[in-house]
Amino acid sequence: MAQTVGDIIDRAKRILQERGEGIRWTDSELIGWLNEAYVAVAVERPDAHSTVGTINLSAGPRQELPAGGLRLMDVLASASGRAVRPTTQRMLATMRPTWQSETATTDPEFYVPDDRHPTTFWVYPPATEGASVEALYVTTPEQHATDTLAAIADSPISVSDRYATALLDFTLYRAFAKDAESPANLNRSQGHYQAFANAVSGKGRGDVLTSPTGGTDDAG
């Protein structure tokens, strides 16, 4: 059976020994932390919420993912169907020092990802207005309204069910962090965050999955 928002929140409330709509930890807070958990999972495990779609390019070399994009994974092809290959800023700077000011085209040959600015990438030759590429990128999972649990309790969670336990641990990490002045709650908060991190295999794996070149230099 698919995991729902209500499943995650109810489990969190049982562990927190919270009742009704919440006294110390309200339903609204718990739903908000679940929304944060979705984004944390998507960032650490891009395979949890990626999409293939068309990105309309801006004029010039510097490009941005569409609204809601979290991290570029790969640029697949230009609008003409031509493959767009990954490269690095260092390689382009060595081979074509003036690459950012060269004649623009609708058919870029290369792209440069930037792990330090994961929503930004660069194309070579620079793009003309109206150019587009087909790309694979991580998107922000659907966020739930925090007004009332009853309205969304039966809604499926926004990432795969295999991350349900990780979502619960992240929500509890944020909940116990609310009372982190207590050593016991601080320890529980840290324990739940570690469980979350272990469940999603850590940030290093996420970076490897999302970096076509295994890391890149700043594109300027």
Work out the number of β strands: 7
Q: What is the count of DSSP helices, taking H or I runs of 4+ residues?
A: 7
Please give the alpha-carbon distance between the first and last residues: 49 Å
Task: List the uncertain runs.
Answer: none
Shape: elongated
Order of adjacent strands in the largest pleated sheet: 2-6-5-4
Task: Write down the secondary-structure element order.
Answer: HHEEEEHEEEHHHH
The total domain count is: 2
Structural class: alpha+beta
Kindly list the characteristics that best describe this protein.
four-stranded mixed beta sheet, 220 residues, 2 domains, three-stranded antiparallel beta sheet, elongated, alpha+beta
Task: List the SSEs and their pairings.
Elements: H1 5-16, H2 27-44, E1 50-56, E2 60-64, E3 69-78, E4 85-86, H3 89-95, E5 110-113, E6 120-127, E7 132-139, H4 149-152, H5 164-177, H6 183-199, H7 202-210
Parallel strand pairs: 4-5
Antiparallel strand pairs: 1-7, 2-6, 3-7, 5-6
